[in-house]
Amino acid sequence: MQAQRDGGRLSAAICATPAVFLQAKGLLDGKKATAHPAFADKLVDQSAVAQRVVVDGRLTTSRGPGTAFEFALELVKQLYSEDKAREVAGPMVLPDGFKV
Known about the structure:
This is DJ-1/PfpI domain-containing protein. The protein has helices at 2-6, 17-22, 68-79, 82-89; strands at residues 11-14, 53-56, 59-62.
């Protein structure tokens, strides 16, 4: 993960990983992030913990299993485009009003 960050590449983590791993390795220094509610209190920067998906620069974090589609589609958007994320979301039978 440090090589990802240092190389300017995308990094992503979901559930407990932002708080348990990224925070412990110093990979959240100066970054906003979120994590599973059971672990979010361990994040030093609490300003974004209630958000379902947080993008700060090249880092994307998300809260847990219930946010996995939003998390995955955000990564598709970053890697390809918003149009591609909408295309991928189409056949997923997501709830009415789900925004990509």
